[in-house]
Amino acid sequence: MVKIKYLDRPSLSNTERFFFIDFIKGMSITIRNFFRKTITTKYPYEKLTPPKRFRGTHAHRVKDGKEPPSFLAIEKFMEIHDGESRCVACYMCQQACPVPTLFNIEAEQLPSGKKRVTRFDMNLLNCLYCGLCVDACPVDCIIMTDNYENAGYSRKDCTIHLEDMKERGLDFDKRRYNEPDRIWIDDEMREKLWGQIKWS
Amino acid sequence: MKELILTSLAIGVKSVIFIIGMFLLAAYLTWIERKFAGHIQQRPGPLHVGWHGLLQPIADALKVLTKEDIVPEGVDRFLFYLASLLAFVPAIMILAVVPFGEPINIFGVEIKPYITDLNVGLILALAFGSISIYGVIFAGWASNSKYPMIGGLRKAAVLIGYEVALGFAMVGPIMQAGTLSLKGIVEAQQGLWFIIPNILGFVVVLFAILAETGRTPFDVQEAEAELVSGYNTEYSAMKFGLFPLAEWYIATFVLSAIAVILFFGGWNGPHIFGPLSPFIWFLLKLGMMFMFFLWVHWTLPRYRVDQITEIAWKVMLPLSILNILIVAIWIMIFG
Fold first, then answer.
1. Residue B68 and residue B235 in contact, taking contact as beta carbons nearer than 8 Å
2. Which residue ranges of chain A lie beneath pLDDT 50?
């Protein structure tokens, strides 16, 4: 049996009723806000940098010698040169994706028997930015960058391709590869960077 | 004959100056309101067009004037066009009787900073204020749509209640001054401002002005959460722009002027700014009054419709009548 608790609305005292005390309280709050500094960002002129783990537009990391061991195991079957996207077309990102049709991945077999990725398109209009593709990637190739200005003038502009993903990944790693992660970081390092954090 | 032509010419020129000045002022009152509302919510308001958004009203006017003017099918065209004019014209007509200062002599020519000084000026102002509700009701009716209809009728219900209270609250200053002319009322406040015995009447007038101009605690006629945009839902372009311009800016400004004249001594004040001090005092008081309405608007939530009419008939009307009694006793004692 659900018990229902009835509450009486607090009634106004005569002082409050005659002198509009609640009006004055509210208006004192607004006038105090009026003299405070504004807290807004003047957006097109000032842009905030999101944290490193921000889930923005996707990008590809390139083959630069910092690959995980899983890439070294598969490397000899792939036609990937230094500075190219390290995607191995394993389709794991598409498997993990809630909307798998947004991926359009194609690869071909070269006469030498090696595999080459020819197409990696993502239709970001359907993307939820959930980051499951990033978690699924076995070679640490697909990442999400801090770019949040991904509006376009046509639907075509909202599809990202292999080349621009590579460029974005290079740019992101150049800017923020060495930045410590806010969560996976030693406590001493965190205190040095952002001060003492009180855990509840 | 020559005198008649000269007088009418002078009044015509003065009217044109007043109307154009009021238009420009209303445009910049929108800028003031947006800045004020922004800073109350800790954001800067218009900032990009010009220095601190000073050209924003001009950009807005250009935008509103060049928008497509849609007249929906099924509207009563005559009333639809008439409504926006009926909301706007009476609001600006009140300006005819509002004096902005004493007559001043410039190069031997006496310039009166008001259009006319009628001996029934206050009644005229009240009458024009009441006429302007026809604009709202016609807009609601002519739009042939349910939300404007509800909004227009709500506004009518609110205004009927508050016009009565407003009229009775203004009786106090009229009794003390012994005249209905706004200039006469100001001249009667040389010693003590009428706020002293009329404090109850002033409170009633504050509420009535908020209700009459549809500012926030009483903005039931355009309650965004309930009615899409209230009585002006079907309007577009400049026909839409006239409604907020008339109600929120011109009507509030002019009624603030009347409240200042009735209770705060109009342009009376120490002559510390030289020959222009009456104007400066009047505009200062007027600006503070207007800013007070903005402050209330951007602070308080909205009353329910039934609460508003209840306050009007059960609280405000008895208060204004009590105010008449108090003022009568004051006059009997102090003469």
1. no
2. none
